[in-house]
Amino acid sequence: MSHGFYGKFLEVNLSTGESRETALPDEDYRRYLGGSGLAAKIFYQRGYHKIEPLAPEAPLLVFTGVLTGHSVPTACKAAFCGRSPATGIWAEAAVGGYWPSVFKTCGYDGLIITGKSDRPVYLYLDGSGVEIRSAAALWGEDTYSTQDKIREELGAEVYVASIGPAGENGALIAAIMIDGHDARAAGRCGLGAAMGAKNLKAIAVRRCGSPPAVADAKDLTEARKAVMPKLREKAKGLTDFGTAGGVPVVERLGDLPIRNWTLGSWTQGASKVSGQAMVEAGLRVKHYACFSCPIRCGKDMKVEIGPYRGAIAHGPEYETIAGFGAMCLNDDPNYIIAANDLCNRFGLDTISTSSVVAFAMELFEHGLISEAESGGLDLSWGNGEAILKLIPLIARREGLGAPLSLGVRKAAEHFAPLAQEFVAESKGLELAFHDPRAFTSMAVVYATANRGGCHLEGLTYFNENRAVPASLIGLKDDYEPHGIEGKAELAKKMQDYMSVFNALGLCKFLIRGHIVPADIARWFSAVTGWDISEQELLHAGERLFNLKRLINVDLGISRKDDTLSPRLLAHDRREGAAAGSLPHLGKMLVQYYDLRGWSAEGIPGHEILTDLDLDFKRHVS
Amino acid sequence: MSHGFYGKFLEVNLSTGESRETALPDEDYRRYLGGSGLAAKIFYQRGYHKIEPLAPEAPLLVFTGVLTGHSVPTACKAAFCGRSPATGIWAEAAVGGYWPSVFKTCGYDGLIITGKSDRPVYLYLDGSGVEIRSAAALWGEDTYSTQDKIREELGAEVYVASIGPAGENGALIAAIMIDGHDARAAGRCGLGAAMGAKNLKAIAVRRCGSPPAVADAKDLTEARKAVMPKLREKAKGLTDFGTAGGVPVVERLGDLPIRNWTLGSWTQGASKVSGQAMVEAGLRVKHYACFSCPIRCGKDMKVEIGPYRGAIAHGPEYETIAGFGAMCLNDDPNYIIAANDLCNRFGLDTISTSSVVAFAMELFEHGLISEAESGGLDLSWGNGEAILKLIPLIARREGLGAPLSLGVRKAAEHFAPLAQEFVAESKGLELAFHDPRAFTSMAVVYATANRGGCHLEGLTYFNENRAVPASLIGLKDDYEPHGIEGKAELAKKMQDYMSVFNALGLCKFLIRGHIVPADIARWFSAVTGWDISEQELLHAGERLFNLKRLINVDLGISRKDDTLSPRLLAHDRREGAAAGSLPHLGKMLVQYYDLRGWSAEGIPGHEILTDLDLDFKRHVS
Q1: What is the DSSP letter of B163?
Q2: CA A375, A376, A382, A383: dihedral to nearest 10 degrees?
Q3: Residues near B93 by Cβ (< 8 Å), separated by ≥ 6?
Q4: A272-314: pLDDT as tens digits
Q5: Do A417 and B366 touch (CB under 8 A)?
C-alpha cells in the first residue's frame, strides 16, 4: 500500500565516498513519524551521541517527515539533526521553504552524512542516488550565490541547502540555509559548523516528480478543505504582517527582551520596527509562502542600507526584529532588514547572532570591551552601523567576532570572569526572544527544551497571550501570566504536541490557525492509511520528547542543567507589564518532572519509558 | 632570647591515644605569624587538604598567635583550622574571649588533633602535656553546662572549648564555642562537626601562669600606651553599644540584608532591633571585654523569652541581629537575644543558622515547604516563635532541621530544583550580612575569601562607609559605594592586612580604633625582638592569603568558584540607598587577579609565589 514515504534513507560517507541505502520498517514511521523523530531514533540507536560534534565521523542527519511534500497544509519541513557544535547535546533545526519538499521527490526519506571530505564538496541528489561533486568554486561564496552557481551548473529545478562563510569558518552559531535568495534557515544549534567541518558546502536536490503516493488522496483533500476556513481566519495576522506583526503586542505584554533582557518597556521603539510599520514605510515588496502553506507569513522586503542596498531580501521575522531591534536598542527597521539579510547570506542564526551582538554591546557599555578589542567599532546601544560591521566579523571569526562566533555561553567563558551575568541561555543555547518573566510557562519550556533555550519546543506564550487557546489541547484558557499555577502541565502538553511537527514535516504556526491534534491525526491517517487517533499522535509526541531527553541524559544532562541564566531567574524588571515578575522555575520543575514521570533528578523513569516503548533494551536493536 | 612563643606544638591522635611535641624553627613564626597562618603552613606542607573533612584521620588544628596572651590590645585570639565540613575547602575560625590566652599558658603554641576516639572524650591541657578524658557524662550537654561540669571536676581555672549537640550530631553549620556562659564562637565553616566526628566534646585548658616572656616588655608597654587614646576614642561606638550599634547606619546605607536579601530598606525594624534600642529597653546588663581588650564590645543581656527566659546571655552581635532580625523580618529584639542564646548553647553558627532559617522562610512563603514538612511550624516572615523552635531541630538534625543543618548550598540541593535562587553564598559558605550591592568591594571580598562567603577576610565595608579611612593603609578615602573604581585594590590590600590578625591572635576590630600596620609591626617587634617593618608584616599577610589560596587551588578552586549567588549579582533592590545597584564582579575580578599576580583563571603565578617565598618546592620540606 502507498503510505506517503519511501521507507528508506540514504547514507553517504564523505571520507570514503561510499553511499548505501538502508530500509526501515513501517512501524518506525508510525512510532517516530519521520523527520527529527525518526532521526533521533536512529541517532540514539546507533550511539551517534557518543561522537564529538565536530569529529570527522560525526553524523549529520537530514530527514523529511511522513507528511512532507504532500498536499497537507504547511507540510514543507525537513529537519537537520545531530549533536550540536554549539551545545554538545541533541540538535535539531527544522526548515521550510521548498528544498524539503523537493528532497521528498528524490527517493529517500532522509540522508545521513558521515565522514569528512579532504576537499570542499557538495552532494547532489537527482532521484537516482547521490553524487559527490566538487565545491571548489563554491567555497567562500555566500548562501545566495551558492544556489545561483549550482543552478547554473544543474538547472533551475535544483534547490540547494548550503552553508555560508560562517559554517565554513566553524562559527558555532552558523546556520544551514536553503533556497538561495528565498532564504529559509535551519538556524539553531550551529549545524552549519557541522557541515563546514565535513568540507560539505551544500546539498542540492532536483525536483523529480512527486513524492510517494498517499493512501487516501480523497480523504486528504477533504480533510485539508475542512480546516482551510479556520486556518485562514485565525492566522490572518500572520498573513498580513508575518511574525513581525507580533512585535507591538509582545512588547505590550512585557514579553519582548529589551537591551539584552534588562528593560521591560520599549513602546516607541517597538512601534517603529513592527511589521505594521515596515509595511507602512513601503518596505514590504511581496508576500511569500512556503510549500503548501495557506498562511503565507513570509514577506520580502527592500534592503535600503548596508553593502547590499537595493537588494530584495527576506523580511525579518519577529525573532530577528527582537534580536537586532529591541535586544540591541536599535529602532531603525532598515538596519534590522540589512542585518537579517547579512546573516542569511553569511549563514548565521539570527537569534544567536543578535544575542551575541547585544551581549557585546552590554560588555562595551561597561567598558569590558575596549575600542581596540572591538576593532574600533563603537558598540553603543542602538548603533546599527556597528551591527552591520560586526556580523561579517562573526562569520569570519575575526577579531571580536572570534569569541562571539562561539555563542554567548562560550563567549562569556572567553571574557571570563567579566561577563557571566550578561548571558541569557539554557544548556548553552541562547534563549529565543520570549521572556519567561512575562509568561512563566516559558521558563519551563526553555529550561527543559531538548536543544537548549528553544521557544519552539513549547510555544506556550501563544497560550498565555491567548493567541492559541489552550483549551484546544484540553487545558484551561486563563493562565495568570506571572503566576505558576498550571504552567508545568501547559509546558508538558505543548511540548508533546510540538514534538510531532518537526517529525511529520509541518509548520508549528498551524496552531495559530487553531489546528488541533485531531486535524493532524486525520492528515496522518489519510497519507499513511493507518488509523491514527489523536491520542496515538500525542503519545508519539511524548515519545519523541522523551527520546531526545534520553540522548541528553546519556550526555550528562540532568536537573542541574534544567535552568536559565541568572538574569532571567533573579533580575526582575522595573517597567512594563511584567515589572517585578520572576518565574519560580524550581516549583514548576518539580511539578513538571512529576507530570513527565521523571525522577527528581530529571531522569525519565522506568514506567514512562515502558509506556512509551522507549525501553530500548527491548525495542531497539 | 625570649620572643613570646614556645616554638612547639602538641599533636594528639585520638585513635591511638598517642601524643607528641613538634618543634618549629623561629623562622616559621616570623614568616607565618602563628595562629591560622602557621596552621595553614603545616596543613599545606603535610598535605592535610587531601583528607576528607570528616574522615577519622582529618586534622583539626588549634593555634594561638605569636601575640596571643600578651599585653597587646585585643591579643585574645586562637584560630581553629582544617578543612571545612561545610564547604570542603580551607577552614579557619578565630575566637577571642579567654580560652585562647589561657591555652597560651599551657606550654604549646598549638594543637593538632587527628584520629577518632571510639567513645566521647575531651582533652585536658594542664601545663604538663595532654590528658584524654572521658566525656561520657558530657555528651549531649550544651556548651554552657559542658564548661560548668568540667569545672566541677577540674576547677574554676579551667577554660573550655566545646561543641554542643549541633556538632555532636554532625550539623555542618556547627560552631566550636568557648568560655561557657561567656559564650564566644569559632563559628564559621562547621568545625563543630569536625570535632563531633572525632567524638571530641571539648578541649579544656588550665591557666598555668603566664605566656612565654616577651623580648622587650618595656617597649611593648610604651607601644600599647601610645595607641590607647585613639583606640578608645575611635572605637567608642563599639564600647557603648557593641557591634549591635551599627544596625541603623548599616540599614541606612542599604548594607543590611533584609528578607533573605530581597529588600533594600527596613528603617523601622532596624530601629527596634539596634543595640541602642536594646540598651534603651533595659536589656543590657553589663559590658564584657575579651582578654586584653580596651574596647569592651561585648554586652550581656537579659533573655526575656523562650526556654531560657530569665537567663543572662551574651548579647547578639550585629551579624546575629541582621540574621535573626532583618533576614527573617523579625523586629522583636527579644527573639533575637533568645535565638542567639540558643545557637550558643547548641553550638551553631548564627550567620549560617539564621541564613538557613531565612531561606526556609522564603521557601515557606512560596509554598515550597508544606506545614507537614515544617513539622507544623508556621515559618511566616517574622515569626519569632518559629525561629526558636526551628533552631533545636537544626541542631538535632530532625525533620526540616536535617537539610537546613547542611547550610544553604546543600539545603538548596536537598530541595532541588526548588530553591537554587533563594541562596546567598560563595564557595558554599553563607554570605555574612554586609551587602555587596551596597559596597561593591565586598563582592570581591566574598568571592575571593579563602573560606568562602566571609566578610572578615576583607571588612572593606568599614572603608566604604568611612568608619575606617582607607588612607590608613595608603589608599584613598572616598570610594563611590556602587561604582567599581579602586575596589579591587581596596579588597586586595585589606585582605592582606586582615590576614595578619587571625595569625598573630588579634581582633580585627582594632581597625575600628584606627590601628595601622605600623602599630602592629611595633607590637610584633617588641614581643619577638625581631625588627619587623610595616612592609614585612603586610608582606606576611599577603603570603598567608596566597598560601590558603594554594590549598584551595589544590582542592579544585579557581575562577569559576570566585563568584556569588545570582541573587547578589542579578537581583537589584527597589528601595533604600543601594536601590538599583549591582556589583560588576567580573570587571573587579580581572583587576584583582592582576593586582594579585594570579592568572586569568585565578591561579597564583610563579612570580608572586617566588616573591612570597611560597615556592614550596624550594622552601617547604
Answers
A1: -
A2: -110
A3: B79, B80, B81, B175, B176, B185, B186, B187, B188, B189, B191
A4: 999 999 999 999 999 999 999 999 999 999 999 999 999 999 9
A5: no
B590/A421 CB distance under 8 A: no
Phi, psi of B97 (to 5 degrees): 65, -140
Domain check: are A409 and A453 in the same one?
Answer: no
Q: What is the DSSP string of B473-538?
A: GTS-S---TTS-TTHHHHHHHHHHHHTTHHHHT--GGGGGGT--HHHHHHHHHHHH-----HHHHH
Give dist(CA B574, CA B566) in Å, integer.
17
Specify whether B263 is located in the same domain as B350.
Answer: yes
Single pTM value for the model:
0.88
**Residue that is last in its domain, among A423, A454, A477:** A423
Indicate whether B315 belongs to any domain: yes
Report the range out of A456-460, A616-620, B364-368 with the highest average pLDDT. Answer: A456-460
Residue A180 pLDDT > 80, yes or no?
yes
Q: Are residues B87 and B146 in the same domain?
A: yes
Beta-strand pair B200-206/B121-125: parallel
- Find chain B residues with C-beta within 8 A of A602's C-beta: 417
Residue A620 resides in a domain: no
In a domain, A214, yes or no: no
Taking the C-alpha atoms of residue B149 and residue B49, their distance in angstroms, rounded to an integer, is 35
Number of folded domains that form chain B: 3
Parent domain of B46? 8-206
Q: Tell me the shortest Cα–Cα distance from B616 to chain A, in angstroms.
A: 28
Chain A residues with CB-CB distance to B600 below 8 A: 416
Report ipTM for this prediction.
0.77
Instruction: Work out the percent of chain B whose per-residue pLDDT is above 70.
Output: 99
Q: Sign of torsion, CA A561 A563 A564 A566? A: negative
CB contact under 8 A, A569 and B421: yes
Yes or no, beta carbons of B572 and A571 under 8 Å apart: yes
- A409 and A484 share one domain: no
Same-domain status, A380 and A455: no
Is residue B555 within 8 A of residue B53, CB to CB? The reply is no
Point out the domain boundary residue: B383, B400, B423: B423
Contacts of A388 (CB under 8 A, 6+ apart): A305, A306, A307, A335, A338, A339, A342
Chain A positions touching chain B (beta carbons under 8 Å): 366-368, 415-421, 559-560, 562-563, 566-567, 569-572, 582, 584-587, 589-590, 600, 602
Amino acid at B494: M
pLDDT tens-digit readout, B473-496: 999 999 999 999 999 999 999 999
- Rounded to the nearest angstrom, the minimum Cα separation between B222 and chain A is 48
Q: Under a CB-based contact definition with an 8 Å cutoff, are residues B35 and B67 in contact?
A: no
Distance from C-alpha of B242 to C-alpha of B235, rounded to nearest angstrom? 10
pLDDT in tens, B243-291: 999 999 999 999 999 999 999 999 999 999 999 999 999 999 999 999 9
Rg for chain B, CA atoms, rounded: 22
Nearest by CB to A571, from B366, B420, B571: name it: B571
pLDDT at B439: 98
pLDDT over 90 (residue A131): yes
B interface test, pick of A263, A365, A418 with most B CB neighbours within 10 Å: A418
Chain A residue numbers touching B559 (CB-CB < 8 A): 416-417
> Facing residues of B79 across strands?
B63, B94
Q: What is the mean pLDDT of chain A?
A: 96
* Domain harbouring B595, CATH code: 1.10.599.10
Instruction: pLDDT band for B101, please (50, 70, 90 cuts).
Output: very high
Q: What value does the mean pLDDT take over residues A482-506?
A: 98
